[in-house]
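Need the bound structure for CO-5-methoxybenzimidazolylcobamide, inputs here:
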Amino acid sequence: MTQFANMTEAILAGDPDRVKQLAEEGISRGDDAGAVMAAMIGAMDIVGEKMEAEDMFIPEVLMSAKAMSAGTELLKPHLAEGGDGNKGTLVIGSVHGDLHDIGKNLVKMLMEGSGFSVVDLGTNVAPDAFLAAVKEHSASLVGMSALLTTTMPVMKEVVDALKNAGLRDQVKVLVGGAPVTDAYAEQIGADAYGADAGSAVRIAKSLV
Ligand code: B1M
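Answer from helper R.:
Posting the output first, comments after.
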């Protein structure tokens, strides 16, 4: 457990080198990569609580996010499960107004590792950009991430834009992010909700 406490400290301190070192040590010791990742995600939840309590401010939160991303990169080869052929193309992005990308990047990483070809549109992605990418890449799946309650409605805008363009039947829509729920996915007409990156992959496989 101490190593996970150290990981929490390193993320809170925004220290990418220490995070990488701890992740590396964990893997060499035989720790499960998923458990190391879960410790990092737990640390980001604490960052969120501190942010809400105005105990941590944006520059510090950004440093924690960078530290988390450094650890994620290191774990990448240990988390990806190994794809068995091309499962189709996933267009993914964090919706318009939303700059949070750690969860989205995690989903992208595991999807690539599972045999999906992924087109990452990045953050702050407008509905039109999702639509254009679906057309250009003949995507079979659209993945949207939202971390803010204020940006969640953009997901519905994308679903509606796909309908209006006559593309809704050709593409499955998967949504996720901390404030998103199964009920919300259903309400906006998405095909599925992924609670975490692992379940997003399982669901994506079942959809295509
Ligand atoms: Co912001 N932020 N943030 N933030 N931030 C939250 C989300 C917040 C909950 C913090 C808080 O107050 N407790 C709060 C939102 C409140 C709300 O709307 N209910 C918040 C706020 C308010 C804000 C700002 C408005 C702050 C401000 O400016 N005053 C601002 C908004 C900027 C914007 O987007 N326009 C802001 C900014 C930032 C930073 C830029 C500083 C930074 C982001 C850096 C980055 O992403 N590169 C940041 C961070 C780091 C956070 C917290 C602390 C951590 C988020 C994170 O990366 N978690 C966050 C608190 C929290 O979430 N506990 C917070 C780890 C990540 C792995 O989890 O993204 O949930 P998550 O992904 C999960 C699942 O949700 C799922 O898989 C992952 C796990 O496997 N998942 C999917 C995610 N996407 C999916 C897609 C799928 C399927 C599953 O299918 C396609």
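Comments: The chain has two domains: 1-78, 89-207. The beta strands are 89-94, 117-120, 141-145, 172-176, 192-194.
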